[in-house]
Structures are given as C-alpha cells and as structure tokens.
Amino acid sequence: MPYWRLSGFYFFYFASLGALIPYWSLYLKAEGFAVAQIGNLMAILMATKIVAPNIWGWIADHTGRRMAIVRSGCLLAALSFAAVFVANGFWGLAAVMMIFSFFWNAALPQFEATTFHHLHGQTHRYSSIRLWGSIGFILTAWGLGGLMAGQGVSLLPWILLGLFAAIWISSLLVPEEAAGHLALDHEPLRRILRKPHVVGLLVVCFLMQASHGPYYTFYTIYMERFGYSLSVIGALWALGVIAEVGIFLLMPRLEPAFGLRRLLIASLLLAMLRWCLIGLFPQVAWLMVLAQTLHAASFGIYHAAAIHLVHRYFGARHQGKGQALYSSLSFGAGGALGSFASGQIFGALGPQSMFLGAGLLCLAGGLIAWRTIPADKLPVRA
What we know:
Blueprint: H1 3-30, H2 35-47, H3 52-63, H4 66-81, H5 89-119, H6 126-147, H7 156-171, H8 189-193, H9 196-211, H10 213-225, H11 230-258, H12 260-280, H13 285-293, H14 295-314, H15 319-349, H16 351-372
C-alpha cells in the first residue's frame, strides 16, 4: 500500500480546506460582500457537490480510471480558481466558484474509493491515512490565523492557488492501477437505494452536514463579534481538527468495541451539544475550547463511521457511486442548504439562532439513525 502517497494527497487537499473554510468568508467580507451574499457564495461550494460527484462517480465505475478523473479534476480546479483574480462583483465570483468547485468536488470521492481499494478489506486502517488530511487542515487553519488579520487576508487567493497546485502534483504520484476494473456481477444500484438502512444513512449524513453550515460559513465572523482575535480563532479551528486526529487514531479500537451504529448516533448527539454550546455561551472561553474538542465526534467519529457504512452498503462495484452519493447528499446538498439557511437566519434572527437550529438538525439525525441503522455484529468477548 502506498501509504505516504495516499496520505500526501489527503494532506494537501485538507490543507486547502483549512485555508478556504475558516477564512474565505472573511476574505469575502473584506471584499465588501454582505452577510447574505457570503452565505450564498459559500453555498455554491457545497451545491456543486450535489451533481459533480455523481457524474464523475458514474464515469469512474464504468471505466475503472479513478485516478485519471482525480488528476483531471484537480488540474481543472486549479486553473479555474485562478479566475478569481479577474472576477468582478457577486455574479462574476459566483460563476468562478461554481466552475472551480464542479471540478474540485470530483476528486475526493473517487480518491476515497481508491484508498479503500488499496486497503484490501482492512478498512480499519483508513483512519491512519485520513488523519494526514486533518494534520494539513491544522497547519493551515492555525498558521494563517495571524496572517489573515488586516490586509493579510488579500493574500488568501494566492495561498489557495498554491495549495490547489500541490493537490494536483500529489495526485500524479498515486498509481492508476489502484482503482482497476470491478466485477460485473453485482446487486443493481436501484435495489441498494431502496433499502431502509441505506436511505436512513443518507438522510442522517444530509442532516449532519447541514448542521455544519453555520460553523463552516460564519464561525470566524461569529467569534470575532465576541472579541476573539483571529489568532485565537485560528487556534480554535486547529484545536477542533487536533481532536479529530486523536479520534482517528482511536477509531481502529472504537469500531470493534462499540460498532458503527452506536458511534454514528453518539456523534450526532455530541454534535448537538457542540452547536448548543457555541450558540448559548460564546463569551465563555473554556466552553468554546470544549466545543471545539467535540469536533472529534461531530466530524471525526461521524465521518469514519459514515464512510465505512457507505463502503459496506454499496459493495465493490458501486463504490464510486456510493462515495459520490455520500459526498453529494451530505457535503453537497446538506452543506449547501446549511450555508444558505445560515446566511438567512443570521440576518433575520441573529447568529446564535442558527447554531441552535443546527443542534435540532443533529437531534433529528440521531433519532433517524437509531430507527434505521441496523446494529453491528460485535465480536463476542470471553
């Protein structure tokens, strides 16, 4: 298994997210965009995940050339993002972000499928590879906190362009034969999608990512309102992902001990607690630290459990489409709705209301998971 080549791609991909998610809304604010416009522009990044991953997933499952799709998507994403330097106004930037994210969102689901192919059934090793993505996020989110103060935010497009180029270069190092052609005797996709536990899982993933909309879109601006400096906010972003790394290291032990169903439900309930803490007690610094450590559950445990369940439910032949559906319905549709709604709620009811609404989404997701996801067959202990 090419551990470091796979890890390198995750490192640069999520390093770019560590620059984009915490600070892109800040850059847009500095460019003079209103709160609702910022919410809409951030929603575009998520909305293209509704369509793009499914198109590329269908092509990948029928050709077996996943890494060709990953490489092409990364290159075209970097080239199209360069147009932000000449885009004018809301609609010009919206067009650039739509084209860029259409290609950028093609890469990760197919790379996830490639990684699972490399694991040869040892899915518990996924977290030890994926954690390097979290490390990349930490380094950029924390490292850029001080730089983004004042006029430094104008450097963000250049930093992002360099990271997107690094993603493309790292994709060239992963061998194409990792994906391969898959067997033709398989259960039809439409039959898989009719199963209650598959439908339940996809709905749960949608709700979880919708609940992250206020966090990914407005957390930096929100915390600035309560007197936190950008350096401190960057450290809080990084702390969340440090907790995520820690839980990824523990997942090979947690999964066989508790099962994916219990872990998924726990992640939703802990995410509800996290959003309520941020919404109700933003002035209490130690509670904000605690809320960020809960990122270990709201993303780390959730993502590891969800992606393992997708791998289990969709089988080998439909891995590309399964990962694409997971990405498009959760990070795409869920993330877009969360970003768009958070912008509207921020302006109408205030920022604290959007975090409390996020908590309600997690509660609903926990109830659905409890009703629809079947229990794991845990090993019998002596």
